[in-house]
Amino acid sequence: MTILLELFYTFLKVGLFSFGGGYGMLSVIQGEVVTRHAWLTSAEFTDIVAISQMTPGPIGINSATYVGYTAAMNATGSPAVAVAGSLLASLAVMLPSFAIMLTISRYFMKYSKSASVESVFKALRPAVVGLIASAALQLMTVENFGSPTESTLQFVVSVLLFVGAFVAALRYKVSPILIVIAAGAFGGVFYGIVGC
To answer: Over 70: is that where the pLDDT of 144 sits?
Structure first.
C-alpha cells in the first residue's frame, strides 16, 4: 500500500528534522498531513492534537499514531491498514531520535561542557521556541476558537477560556492537568446548556 510507505517516509522526515519535542513537531506534522498531503482536514488534525494531549505519552508520538490511523483509514477504509498506518507512523517518528540518541549518548557526557556543544544548544533554543509558538498559532483556527462574525458566542467563550488558562498557568502556577480538566468540564457544561 502506497499510503503506508508515504506515512512511514513522512513521519521519518518529521522525526529527523523536528526539534523541541512533541509541541515543536506539531506544526511540521500539520504542514505535512494537512497542507502538503491533504490526508486530514484542519478540523481532524485539531481533534487529534486534543486527543494526543489527553492520552498518556509524548504528544509527538501520540499525534503520529492517531494521524497514521486516521490517514490510512481515510485512504483505504480498512481497519487493518489503519492499524498498520498507526504503527508505521509511530515507529518512523521515533526511529531518528532513537538512532541519534544511541549515537550521541556515548559522547555527550564527555563533551557536554565544551564551548561548541554549548553554542549549538544556545542556537537551538530560539528555534525550539519558534516551533512551539508556530504550533500554538496554527491551532488558533476557526475550528478551535470560532469566528467573531460567524459564531460570536463560541469565539468569546474560547478567548475567555484561553486567557483564563494562560493566567492560571503563568500567574498562579496551576497544574496544566487541572487546567485541561477545568476547561473541559466548563466547556461540557456550558455547551451542553447552550446547545452549540
So the answer is: yes
Instruction: Give the closest residue to 72 by CA, choosing from 28, 27, 35, 39.
Output: 39
Note whether 88 and 176 are same-domain residues.
Answer: no
Give the integer Cα–Cα distance in Å for 84 and 159: 38
CB 35 within 8 A of CB 45: no
Amino acid 159 reads V
Distances (CA, A) of 163 to 47, 146, 148, 159: 21, 15, 16, 6
In b/e form, how buried is each residue of 89-111, taking b as 16+ CB within 10 angstroms?
Answer: bbbbbbebbeeeeeeeeeeeeee
Domain shared by 130 and 157, yes or no: no
Cα separation, 183 vs 196, whole angstroms: 16
Are residues 100 and 153 part of one domain? Answer: no
Residue labelled with grid coordinates 515543536: 24
What are residue 152's phi and psi, to 5 degrees? Answer: -60, -45
**Cβ(63)–Cβ(52) under 8 Å?**
yes
Would the pLDDT of 75 be above 60? yes
Question: pLDDT of 21-43, one tens digit each?
Answer: 777 788 889 899 999 999 999 88
C-alpha grid cell, residue 64: 503520529
